[in-house]
Structure of Neurofascin homolog (chicken) a:
Amino acid sequence: NARQEFLPWPPSQTSPLAQPPTITKQAPKDYIVDPRDNVVIDCEGKGNPRPTYSWTRNGKFFNVAKDPRVSMRSRSGTLVIDFHYSGRAEDYEGEYQCSARNEHGTALSHKILLRVSKAPLWRKENLEPVLVQEGTSVILRCQPPPGLPIPVIFWMDSLMQPIPQHRRVSQGLNGDLYFSNVVRADAQFDYICNARFLFTHTIQQKNPITLKVLTTRPVTELTPRFMSPTGTSSNIIILRGEDLLLECIASGVPTPYIMWHKKGGELPRDKIRLENFNKTLRIVDVSEENSGEYFCLASNKMGSMRHTITVRVKAAPYWLDQPENLVLSPGEYGSLVCRANGNPKPNIQWLVNGELIEKAPPNPSREISDDTIIFRDAQIGSSAVYQCNASNEHGYLLANAFVSILDVAPRMLSRRNQIVKVIENSRARLDCAYFGSPIPNLRWFKNEQGNNLYGGKYLIHDNGTLELRRARKDDEGTYTCVATNVLGHAQNQVRLEVKDHTRILKAPESIVVKKSRTARFDCRIRHDPTLKLTVTWLKDDKVLSLPWRMKKDEDSLTIVNVSDRDQGTYTCVASTELDSDSARAYLTVLANPPGKSAKLAPGSLSDRPSPPRDLELTDPTDRTVQLTWIPGDDNNSPITEFIVQFEEDRVQPRKWHNLTTFPSTINSAVLDLSPYVNYQFRVIAINEVGASEPSSPSERYQTTGEAPLSNPTNVRGIGASKNSMDIRWTPLNATQVNGPGLKYVVSWKLAETDDEWSTATVTKANYVVSPAPVFTPFEISVQAINDFGAGPEPDIEIGYSGEDCKCRALQSTTTTKATCIYTVSLSQGSVAERSSHRIIKYYSTERGHSAHCATFATTAVCCGCVCGCGVGGRMCVYQPLSSPLPQDPRFKLHKCPSW
């Protein structure tokens, strides 16, 4: 048996017990400091006797006493390097390590690399204007001076206005400014790269760059080409736990869209973020399973190009089993275990008291086996601090664990004769912290009875705490814990008291009071009589100060001479030292009715409600927000419901839509919201007379985005001309967009073939496929995507390319002049029969008049003002853009004109 922790002792019990040192506070491994401040390198520890401290710098002893600028804080090892009067912080850069030692061992801090923050000036340079042809790509280089830490880069103009960034123009991860294609408006003389250095709070500026756009040649459409990274493939190595940033920036006209994929699998949706207009893929907290091949696809109407990035995830060492402090009694068995993983697998190295264990004095009771040290028959005097160092090429871990050999009778560490109070049916924990070596055996008893408490409703934790999961009245009493080992025993007592719940028996009720009258809220409470009760009243969730008009009794709150400002939510809070209960009600203040001398117009005794007011948004989450409002005056006709409306400022700004309705008893509700909508709300009250004016709008609330949850509807393909097909659809509305950068991926292929799908990505609600064979069926689909990802798999529809115009002489015509309806007989192999769409759009006469016609089997029924045209007309088959075949041939009739 071995105790795997060393418990803190009360001061009165600490002095006789030995404790090897431990490090309790240390500076970070990579420690960057501001050169304008004094340098403080933390190192604190504990032990008994109190440890002393020393330092090494770059592997050599650092003599603090000999340097007048360096001092060590009292009772700790923290170094303070003072530069107020002289010296440079750069002179003290290096690798530091702290040692804390007493007569029982030596503990080490990790190695601390001290570096001074640097914010160098930009080197002087004469920048020639950048000349670029309109429509081509260009990169404006930033190349900031090497700072520590790496500066934050941003681009501005000479008026300190940010350079607008979007899909066409954006900043890369390296700070350069990328133009996928240049337009005339990009011509500017003051593109300025700025570097902000965090530690020194300074900003350095590069000389302005002049961009001149040449317009001597027309802009030609170009297929995508990658600007960063170049080529078709690249590699990246990332460490486990870091954020992986993959970037693809492409040139082309029109500006290409970027989409990301992982070869042989899906992107980890819960860990990815699309940034910089889809050009950057961030995977947070990468792990080994995120290794693999990722590719970005840059596409525009001219084509597409793919870049593959091979990602390998390596790992600095990380703990599997960190060694823990070990307290053994003489002759006892124990072990220290140090297991770490990494890529490559880390090397494990043991030290004792800061020295390599191979160079330490031999210890016959100690056996080393790779990542484990085994102690057999440990003896007094062999206490020490062991260090485990796990390292590979990417980093290291250092852990201290002491082994203390003690021979100690049991001792109680918890305060004696505690009283623990709990509410009935709640969890009760009775503490009994103890120590001894060998580890004592602990038992609990109730009311000094001989039965050991174990199992059932009792749970004894390793630290000695007795837990009752649901304390009842009959569990009250005095509990005794007894710790025993071969050297003796110790005991302590804890008194458990079980109290009644605090409950509000009669809660306040919402009331409506006229101005200047009296309002009263009741709040009747039951509580445990042995506990002190405190009753607090809140108004609108804030503690209510009690002016002279308000009086708080034991079970009520009275408000006299009520005014408009008293309207709101009142909460009664009843609390004791152990629990509390609360209840709330709403006070509505009505305006006084007109005086007797006032003349009321007929029918004016009731009116539409006054508009709600004081809209407030609280408790925001990604997809909900709580809206609270104060109802207006009902104007003598009770309010029956509230309508909550919303407005968004992206797709249909200043247009209000109904969101939901609530009954008149509700004035606060949680609203379910759609992703990526910048909401603004207002409320309308309804009574039997009508609707109120809308309330003043609330503040705006922006929900977070996600990939679209739906695709466009009413997808259809229709003939724009004889060699093309116009694919159209109903676009997503404002609450369906779900994120920035909404686009539509249009796909098409010949129906019932194994052809590859062709795709195009557009922002408008149609796409023309050209060229296309005459009147041919296509399989088509439209999928919505945004900067967060793609929508669901789209449904496949059938569309047709356009027909050729086939004309022939009419074979026979019958005319009914009264109705203007024409019936045309269609012979076998006629144009209408060869047209599978079977709609004749125009019926043209030699006089230039036309009629709408529809085919039914072998007859075409035509209607239009062509009365008396005779048989000299010609018929053309033409597919309409939108009009479907009518259900019957009853067209709108026209009177014949005078010819």
About this structure: The longest strand covers residues 303-321. The longest helix spans residues 11-14.
